[in-house]
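Exercise: predict the fold of this chain.
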Amino acid sequence: MKKIFLAASLLIAAATFTGFSSAHAAVTISVKSGGGVHIPASQVPVAVRASFAANFPTATNVRWERQTEHGRTQYQADFLMNGQRWRAVFASNGTLLSAGPR
């Protein structure tokens, strides 16, 4: 609830601020529905870690986050690959749901 209130406050503040400027820019505010939590790799299911290693063998600097989307737990990995920042999202069973450069 606090996140929704904060997002609404930011939106109102941004709308008020852009109302006074001559150049109107689009304002995008996103709020995670699951309230993701950063976790160590040891808390990521083995199936997810195995799928990640198979799909992204050259990944470095991996940071994991556990989140809930539509009532299901998902694991998000943010990492470097070939000099670019990437993000991949996995289901609890290791299925790759989405991936790409950020």
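Check your answer against the key: The helical segments are 2-20, 46-55.
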